[in-house]
Design goal:
By secondary structure, this protein is an all-alpha fold. It has 24 helices and no strands. The chain is globular. The chain starts with 13 loop residues before the first helix and ends in a 6-residue tail after the last helix.
């Protein structure tokens, strides 16, 4: 049989193939619950190779070590069945992901897409892991390479445009990104990734009022029954944070962002990132940190994906749980000597950043600056988006201000004002640095 994009699949019947396509569409749209759907496909056709592989990819996308056994089960079930060359390449890509060799997996996805440019599953997973690796060029160009082979009548075309929109945004092509994202939404009003790409454009351009209006007007399209809703709520809160509306930020945090007390790591990342931004501004977050620490604590020694470690460290430091902070640092140090992409990401970026957070929590602001300054220009290597990694610069400038490194504050504030002049926080940093400079003799500035 062939899937809806014309590629041969092994071991499927019409019913299981229909369930596979439904699960794939759910995965592309982050709709709840693709695992349950693909499990039905496997029950219908136990020999359906791509169904087993899709299930493995779904759990690997969670970036949690606890899911590796399920990924291996899916991989092994597929490998034990008769397979075609494309399916064997998927197995090889999964092998690389399970081993933590994300760069190798990227190459294997590229091999799949060279011969099968409409392989929607390969493109979807590759895009996610390009994001996890902070590979802005491939976020854009991996999609660009296959886009000529897609047409509006091919199922999933809107999702391809949504991915392309996000890649364009991460490469700073904001006009094309917004245009492409809006086109994806025109084709499918529920494309949450495209909606998220447009929100990123507005965030990066400092279009705060437009951003709030964008999130509010389209909430009914991106919020219901969607795994990605929490992250879009996080973006909504970012816009209010830019307006110093702390009560509204905490309202969103206590409600849709963190109200469910989710133990999903991607949700916990958003929670840490929002509370840390408030923490830097001196906002009392109360018992919220304690709840988040309890969620992160089981992963303190995980060392599986450094972007997770960085956000766990925020909670441990803010709550002054130095035992868990030390445990996390020890796990990261052990990881450096292990194989896999995460070792390099940890060594080059993650460990210095976490040491910087640790120093900040101890009030050693000069040490925070010393740890963060050398890595801020290469921080993309450990994943995330520009908006997420802005936390590094925010911590750096706040540490520099507390350490009275006025020339650095002035320079960083100028950089931030050039990008987002409407931000009250950026203006405060700039005005504070300028006022100090004016009060100092010229040769001391």
């Amino acid at each position: 049989m062939q899937d809806l994009r014309g590629y041969a699949v092994s071991g499927a019947d019409a019913a299981s193939l229909g369930l596979f396509e439904k699960a794939l569409a759910q995965f592309q749209g982050y709709v709840i619950d693709p695992v349950a759907t693909i499990d039905k496909a496997i029950i219908q056709s136990p020999g359906f190779v791509m169904a087993h592989l899709l299930r493995a990819y779904l759990v690997l996308a969670g970036t949690e070590a606890a899911y590796l056994p399920m990924a291996r089960d899916g991989r092994n079930a597929a490998a034990a069945l008769p397979t075609n060359p494309r399916e064997r390449r998927h197995i090889a890509a999964i092998d690389a992901l399970i081993a933590g060799e994300y760069d190798l997996a990227s190459e294997r996805f590229e091999d799949i897409l060279l011969d099968a440019p409409r392989d929607a599953l390969a493109l979807q997973v590759a895009h996610i892991f390009d994001f996890f690796r902070g590979d802005a060029r491939n976020l854009r160009d991996r999609v660009a390479r296959v886009l000529p082979e897609w047409r509006p009548d091919v199922p999933g075309y809107h999702a391809v445009l949504g991915m392309y929109a996000f890649g364009l945004e991460e490469c700073g092509q904001y006009g094309r990104a917004e245009e492409t994202g809006r086109e994806a939404i025109r084709l499918n009003s529920g494309d949450v990734w495209a909606h998220h790409a447009v929100a990123h454009v507005m965030e990066m351009q400092g279009r705060i009022d437009e951003g709030i209006a964008w999130m509010s007007a389209r909430e009914s399209h991106w919020a219901p029954d969607n795994f990605f809703a929490g992250h879009n709520w996080w973006h909504w809160a970012l816009f209010h944070l830019d307006r110093d509306e702390y009560a509204r930020v905490l309202e969103l945090y206590d409600g849709p962002i963190r109200g469910s007390r989710s133990k999903v790591v991607l949700d916990m990342i958003d929670a840490s990132a929002m509370l840390w931004r408030l923490h830097l501004r001196g906002v009392d977050c109360g018992a919220r940190w304690g709840e988040l620490v309890e969620a992160w604590a089981p992963l303190a020694s995980d060392g599986f994906y450094v972007f997770n470690d960085f956000h766990a460290m925020m909670a441990f430091v803010a709550a002054e749980r130095w035992d868990l902070a030390d445990e996390t640092l020890s796990a990261m140090i052990r990881r450096i000597s292990s194989p896999g992409s995460n070792a390099a990401m940890t060594r080059d970026v993650g460990l210095p950043l976490c040491r910087g957070l640790y120093a900040f929590g101890r009030g050693e602001y000069d040490e925070t600056v010393n740890w963060l300054r050398p890595v801020r220009a290469i921080a993309s290597r450990f994943g995330g988006s520009h908006a997420q990694r802005d936390l590094i610069d925010l911590t750096l400038i706040e540490a520099a201000q507390r350490d009275r490194q006025n020339t650095l504050v002035r320079a960083l504030a100028g950089e931030r004002m050039a990008l987002k002049p409407v931000s009250p926080l950026n203006r405060r940093y700039r005005d504070g640095a300028l006022s100090i400079s004016r009060a100092m003799p010229l040769n001391a500035a």
